[in-house]
Predict the structure.
Amino acid sequence: MTEPHAADPFDPSASSLSGQVTPEVMDELLAVRGSIDNIDATLVYLLAERFKATQRVGYLKARHKLPAADPDRETAQIERLRRLAEEAHLDPAFAEKFLNFIISEVIRHHQAIAENHGSAADHVGEPTSGR
C-alpha cells in the first residue's frame, strides 16, 4: 500500500468532539480512529485489486460472448461470504448487502465492457494471450 500524498487534505484529528472531552479520551479516540483510517485505506486498495480481477473476467466474458451475470456463482459467493461473516462475528446480512452492491457494480462493468468490446480490442487493462 502506498503512503498518502503530502498534499492530502485529510486531517486525522478532525473531530466535532474537540474541547468536549478530556485530552486522554481524545487521545484514545484518535488512536482508535487511526486504526480505522488504516483499515479503510486497505479496503480501498483491496477493492481496487478486486475490480482489476473482475475487469479481466469481463473481457474474457465479452470475448467469448458470455453473459455479464452468473447467478449460480453469485449465489454461491453470497452463501460463502455469509458463512465467513458468521465466523468473523460480522453481521451476515450486512456482508450480503455489501457483496450484492459489489456484484451489481461488477455486472454493470461487464455489460459496459461487452458493449465496447468490438470497438476497442486493445483496450487498456484487457489481458492478452501472451500474459
